[in-house]
User: Which sequence fits this backbone?
């Protein structure tokens, strides 16, 4: 089972918890439980005793993709709530205030950025010979990292609108996926 399938399973777990849990802590619980579930799935498939740098790199890559997706999803949810409030529609089913939701998303973005930095460092430290597949992975990972960083700093300090944050996170998520699939495609050539 590829790590993309494992990430998808953890994202599905995240959605189930977010949909069925209506408490104020549902975002924290769903993110923590889903990330832990991803780690357990990854370790159960790859084994705990023979974990090497390559496996750790794949695990951190999957976690960074998971956090990137969760941040993207939560920003879209918050933006939809803001639009409904601006239209005068009152939302009674959400217990989490919008400002607190944004603070949590900033934390998730910070965790995702840290994990993406670890992906870049571990990926470059694994290889001693720089090949075309490593260069493509490094370029796309750096693009994703840069977009992620600009989005985080822009939202936090320069009041970027959510529209730009959503677009930036979407592009960053596709850059990480492109790095993975580009590598898979180049290896199979």
Assistant:
């Amino acid at each position: 089972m590829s790590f993309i399938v494992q990430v998808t399973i953890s994202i599905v777990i995240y959605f189930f918890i977010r949909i069925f849990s209506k408490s104020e802590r549902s975002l924290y619980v769903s993110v923590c439980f889903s990330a832990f579930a991803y780690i357990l799935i990854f370790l159960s498939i790859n084994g705990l005793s023979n974990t090497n740098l390559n496996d750790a790199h794949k695990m951190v890559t999957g976690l960074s993709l998971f956090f990137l997706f969760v941040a993207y999803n939560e920003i879209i949810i918050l933006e939809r709530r803001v639009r409904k409030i601006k239209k005068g529609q009152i939302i009674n089913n959400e217990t989490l205030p919008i400002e607190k939701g944004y603070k949590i998303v900033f934390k998730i973005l910070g965790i995702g950025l840290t994990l993406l930095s670890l992906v870049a460092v571990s990926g470059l430290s694994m290889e001693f010979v720089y090949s075309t597949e490593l260069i493509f992975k490094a370029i796309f990972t750096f693009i994703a990292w840069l977009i992620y960083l600009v989005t985080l700093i822009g939202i936090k300090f320069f009041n970027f609108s959510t529209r730009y944050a959503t677009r930036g996170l979407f592009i960053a998520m596709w850059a990480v996926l492109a790095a993975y699939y580009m590598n898979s495609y180049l290896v199979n050539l």
The two ends are 21 Å apart (CA to CA).
